[in-house]
Every structure is written in structure tokens, then in C-alpha cells.
Amino acid sequence: MSKTLIIGASGQIGKTITQTMAQTNQPTRALVRDKSKLSNLEGKQLDIMEADLEGDFRDAFEGIDRVIFTAGSGAQTGPDKTLLIDLWAAKKAIDYAKEAQVKQFILVSSIGADDPDALESNIKPYLVAKHMADDYLIKSGVPYTIVRPGPLTNDKSLGKITIKRPDSRSEMAIPRADVAKAVMHILSKDNLNGKIFELFNGTYDFDNVLVPSA
Hints:
- The protein has helices at 12-23, 79-100, 124-140, 176-187, 206-209; strands spanning 4-7, 28-32, 46-50, 66-69, 104-108, 144-149, 152-153, 161-162, 174-175, 195-201.
- Helix 1 packs across helix 4 and helix 2 (79-100) runs parallel beside helix 3.
- The chain contains five helices and ten strands, in the order E-H-E-E-E-H-E-H-E-E-E-E-H-E-H.
- The protein has a single domain (4-209), classed as Rossmann fold (3-Layer(aba) Sandwich), CATH 3.40.50.720.
- Residues 8-189 form the NAD(P)-binding domain.
């Protein structure tokens, strides 16, 4: 059975994914800086590993078939941490994944990462870092799927999404719980490599929109 590495497992999206994987007994390695942040999670197939993403963390890829990168520097940090985590750590993870010959690399990016100049934003350094990380993954040769959610909320999961960008920025938000569900859906598929999905609140089931190109 394949084993999944979750990078950023103590973040809100990452922890939701890790909890679901543990509860469904899927072989999982959760990578965190501090194990205590996942002290309330248990699972027979859950392996929690400590590592600093600013250092060398290639050992985390041993025996790994699939990777979910959902680490982020956070809104309270400056451009230095954005550069080191959202870009440089992502680049290292992609390189390690290539060495390990993983079968699937899911990168949680952001709306606006396709063109950081196109959206008015006070987090442009973050979007530039995401843009460069996305581009590096696309060109790496690693089998990938990239998700670019709209502004994240802590609202209750609706279980419905759209991948068509709304006209109004106010309609672009999406609960973190639904981003986690979208990532889990992608993880369960073998035919979504090479796809990039924007994610927003919507009215569609995951099966109806997160599909291969026709």
C-alpha cells in the first residue's frame, strides 16, 4: 500500500488531512516542526516525524509514494519566511520527491499564483513565491497536481465547490475544510496528474469538477 507524506501537517488544512488519513487508517507520515502540535492525533498507520523545513528534510521521503505540500509561512510572518517556506522549502521538497520517484505530488498553492500582477493584493511576495514554486514543480518532471484556492475561511465545510473563478472577489472564498476534502479527493485518483485547479465555494460535487481534461 502506498504511503503519503504530508508536509505542513500541523497547519489548519494539513491537520485536517492528517486527521482524516489517520481515522481511515491510510499509511501516512506527518511532517511537523514540533510533534506536540499533533499530540491529539492517533492512528495505527500514522507516523509523525519532526523536521525543520529550513534545513535538510530528505529523510522524510524514505518509503514515500505520494506527497501533499500544504506548508505555508503564515500571514503573520515577513517576506523572509515567505521566501524560505513557500518557495525554498517547496523547491527542496520537489527535489527530494524527484529523487524518491514519487508517483504524485499535490501542491496547495493560491489563487493569483498564475499571475501575481493580475490581482490587487497586499500579499504579493507570497503570490510571487507560490508562482515560482508552482512553476518549478511543473517543470520538474515530478507527477503533480496543483490546487489554487481562493481566500481561505474557517467556515463549516459545504462539501460543494467550483473551479470556475467567480467575477467578484467576495465570492472567491472557500472553507479550509473543503480545500482539505478536495486534496483528499485528488489523492484518491490516479488520473489527475498534470492538472491545476482553482477552488472556490460552489454548488458542484468534487467528482463533477475535479476530473481529467476531456
